[in-house]
Design a protein that fits this description.
Number of helices: 10
Helix content: 40-55%
Low-confidence stretches: none
Largest sheet: 6 strands, parallel
Distance between the termini: 10 Å
């Protein structure tokens, strides 16, 4: 699948960065403060989606009482406190290095606010692998389809030259909008059943992607 490709689009949260537990713990802090039922890992992987606003509604938040914008800021405050404990997934560096060795361009495409994203990637020492790091203008996690479209137009690349790696249904939706190939990884924020339902190719982890693409 790498033959003929020029660009790898990486998702960040849940694809390169193992932050699912941090996201669950951050949300459970918010739920605890409001005496609302806590969310388990299994339930989180069933409910979490983009736009994130809908996920908050599923959890029982009432935006008439608390605006989504203020809830988002509260979540980010908890996430920032807990997130330093999150590490890159096993196999991340090997795959980044392998793509670089093959001369592929690599970018990160994330719904995370861009300044936070830049810092988080740089803190983990992997910024030099990327030709661009693309994040959102705010913390509201509405999605990244527009960011992806704008990049594709400015890059001059065709969809056939691109492969996207992600861990959610939203990543597949973005790849479908772009018209590019997509591999989803089931160790992140969505479980394998949800990802397989998209019809995309699914791998369990990054070493699996390595063996599929680099060392078949």
């Amino acid at each position: 699948m790498i033959k003929g490709k020029t660009l790898v689009i990486w998702d960040w949260n849940g694809t390169l960065l193992d932050d699912r537990a941090v996201c669950i713990a951050s949300m459970n802090r918010m739920l605890t403060r409001r005496s609302m039922p806590l969310i388990s890992e299994a339930r989180y992987r069933e409910l979490f989606r983009f736009p994130v606003k809908e996920y908050y509604i599923d959890l029982g938040f009432d935006f008439a009482r608390e605006p989504f914008e203020s809830l988002s800021v509260e979540f980010i405050d908890h996430y920032r406190e807990l997130q330093p404990a999150a590490s890159l997934y096993s196999g991340a560096i090997d795959l980044l290095a392998a793509f670089k060795k093959q001369g592929l361009k690599q970018i990160i495409l994330s719904a995370m606010e861009r300044n936070t994203l830049f810092r988080d990637v740089d803190d983990r020492g992997i910024t030099p692998y990327f030709d661009a790091i693309l994040g959102a203008e705010d913390h509201y996690a509405n999605g990244k389809a527009d960011i992806a479209r704008n990049y594709l137009v400015s890059s001059g690349l065709t969809a056939d030259e691109i492969i996207m790696l992600g861990d959610t249904e939203h990543d597949y939706s973005v790849s479908a909008i772009l018209g590019c190939a997509c591999i989803l990884i089931s160790q992140g924020h969505h479980d394998a059943a949800r990802l397989m339902a998209t019809g995309a190719h699914v791998q369990k982890n990054l070493p699996g992607v390595f063996n599929f693409l680099i060392n078949p």
